[in-house]
Protein: YopX protein domain-containing protein
Organism: bioreactor metagenome
Amino acid sequence: MREILFRGFHENKSGESVILVNGAEKRGTWVEGSLIKSESGHCYIGEWLVSSKAIQFYCGGSRKHRTETRYLGMGFALVIPETVGQFTGILACEEKKVFEGDRIKADEEGEISEYSIAYCGEDDYPAFDCIPHIDCDANGLSYLKGADYPIEVIGTIFDTPDKPKGATHD
């Protein structure tokens, strides 16, 4: 089963990362986990603790069994909605996860190219792809991975212009 995972930026004054969102600098921390979006548009990312236990009970004079499952949200952090990106399922160099919104560098047989990763569902193309698009017979991100070109995460689309080249998200 593939991993369904999200990443978003939790704004806090003690955070080590600084990003740009709609032209404004935000200090905080990147967090990964499950995504909850409220009706008001707030987004939270964190972990679920799942607890299951077998229960015996009597119904109509006979003993029955069932499993009771409880879900408890752990450590959910409020994140800036514009920064939420889904894990693409692809691992870059050093097993680093590639998320929607990441900037990557690919070594295509000695030619170094940089791309940002976007979900193209709004374009009737429900997949993660490289921007700018790669002229190939397949999805650009899948093409890079399938051709076994080295991919390196070099940052996010929210990085500040003064961020050192090669700096990456947490």
Observations:
- The chain has two domains: 1-83, 86-162.
- The chain has one helix and eleven strands.
- The chain has a mean pLDDT of 84.
- The longest helix spans residues 140-146.
